[in-house]
Each structure stands twice: as structure tokens, then as C-alpha cells.
Amino acid sequence: MPTAGCLGQAESVLVTDGIKLVLFDMDNVLCDYDREKRVAFLAELAGCTSEFVHKAIWEAGFELLGDSGALDAADYLRGFGERIGYPLSLDEWVEARRRSMTADRAMLEITGRLRDTVDIAVLTNNTTLVTDHIDTLLPELRPLFGSRIYTSAQFKTAKPDPHCYRLCLSELQVAPQTVLFVDDLAENVTGAREAGLFAYHHTSLEAFSKALSEHGLCSER
Fold first, then answer.
1. Alpha carbon distance 109, 124 (integer Å)
2. Quick one: which of 116, 134, 132 has its CA closest to 212?
3. What gap in Å lies between CA 185 and CA 14, rounded to an integer?
4. DSSP alpha helices (H): ranges in 47-184?
5. Could you say which of 28, 41, 147, 150 has the lowest number of CB atoms within 10 Å?
6. CB 199 within 8 A of CB 180
């Protein structure tokens, strides 16, 4: 439960839903994700256009195969290279992903304060390569979340499938009705609600702080 004074202007709000864990998406929630930077780097390596890479990986649905665990990490990496016509190495894939990610310092600061009152975790639609290399991709996450950083691929499904959230919560050993999920995509918020979680569509830092207060959670000192 929050301590006195934690809610700021919303101190009179009653905690009715008993949130025990806040589950965060990663891209465009905890970090700014610029896919075009990633695509441009890959295109330069492969000697092709960004449009070609985007069509080969994202428009063709290949990235979803990695996100959903339909391909394991090795097959995903090999297939990625084949599709862009370049023998992409693991280090190059990681570097392309790293260049596209910039930590959102303000969101991470709020997240750090949340740990005083609730548990926190991450569920991102991504291949397991992301969690395998998270300390290179976004080193700011590990000190906050520890081992509680999950990709959809490890559950062999992806958001917004309600099963993805349920499997993640089973791993975390928490009940859906005690979890607040945060995602920048409306369809993923809808999927979380279908799975029984409280869910918030992330649009701005200010709105997120207000949403936390409405749930009786600490958002500011």
C-alpha cells in the first residue's frame, strides 16, 4: 500500500483494485524506439534500400514470426539475413537494434519510484534475442527490473493475444486483477483487458502520472 503523501493531489483516491504489479511494454514506453534508424543501418550493411528492408522484414510479417516464437533465435537471425540478402551476424543485429533505442529517463525515474510500493516487470513483443542482449540494448533496464524482463517469443505467442499476458503472469505468479499493464498500442491494451488485467494506453508522461494516482500508486515525490 502507498504511504501517506505518496499520491500528491490524488491522496483522497481509494485503492480499490489492489494493484500489486505494474507490467510495462518496452518500446515507446520505457524507451523511444525509432525503427527507421534500425532499418537504415541494416540497409547500409546489406547494400540495399530502407524500403527493401522494411518490406522484407516488417511488411512481409517476418518480424512477427520472431515475436511470436514461431522461429527460434537462430532461425530468426538466419532468416533475417536471407530476407535482406546479407549474412547478418548477431553483433550486427544487436547493433541495429541498439541504435534504434533511447532510454526515456523520465519514465524510468517514475518506474524506479514505483518499486517502493509495487513490483514491476516488462513484457515486450520481441524475439528472445532482445532479452538475451538487453544489457547492451538498454542497460538502464536491468537495475530496475532485474530478471523480470520478458519477451513474447518465450511464451510462443505475442500481444495482443490474451494468452500472452496470462502466460507472463503465470511466470510472475500474480493474478491478472492485481496487475496494471502499460502499452503504447491500443490493441495491446485491449488484449490485456481481455486477459483480466487493468490496462493503460500510454500517450504521455503527464497522463501516465495521473493514471498511477488514480490507481493509488506513487507517481511523484
1. 19
2. 116
3. 28
4. 50-54, 62-67, 73-84, 90-99, 105-114, 128-132, 134-137, 141-145, 162-172
5. 147
6. yes
Averaged over 181-195, what is the pLDDT? 98
Query: For 105-146, how does the pLDDT look when each residue is reduced to its tens digit (9 = 90+)?
Result: 999 999 999 998 999 999 999 999 999 999 999 999 999 999
Cis before 143 (ω within 30) = no
Q: List all residues 6 or more positions away from 92 whose beta carbon is below 8 Å from its beta carbon.
A: 45
- Say yes or no to pLDDT of 155 above 50: yes
Q: Please provide residue 186's backbone torsions phi and psi, each rounded to the nearest 5 degrees.
A: -60, -35
Per-residue pLDDT tens over the stretch 79-101: 999 999 999 999 999 999 999 99
Q: Is 103 helix (H, G, I), strand (E, B) or coil?
A: strand
Question: At 89, is the secondary structure helix, strand, or coil?
Answer: coil
